[in-house]
Amino acid sequence: MTTVAYEFDVIAWAQEQAALLRSGQFNLLDIEHIADEIEDVGKSEQRELNNRMSLLLAHLLKWQYQPGFRGSSWQVTIRTQRIQIQRHLKEVPSLKAKLNNSEWWSSVWGDAVVQALKETGLDTFPESCPWSFDQIMNADFWPSHE
What we know:
Layout: H1 10-22, H2 31-65, H3 72-91, H4 102-120, H5 133-137
Helix pairs in contact: 2-3, 2-4
């Protein structure tokens, strides 16, 4: 049994659990909560990819549908998200499986459209992502309004 309750101070609990692991006192570990926390790490990594991709897609939509508002801040956001997504996929390669998941793309696209709609007031965005992952991540790809 641990002395720090998970529900009351997760940071103190985590420090205690790490100390117990390092000292080999496995019988005192809070296994159920440790398992929950490990699963949460994976969820956190997925959320980061989701958030970065939806932000990138929203800015690509704004770039395409509001050419008169294009500016350096949009360029910086697009470039930064591309770099951060590439870095994240390199650091957590198992996330690459998401890129082949149509439900994931649909969810991320939906988030991007909602964000772009809020920021532009436009409601003319495509129902599904018109670009491939390679296009989205290509540093030379800047969608134009057709």
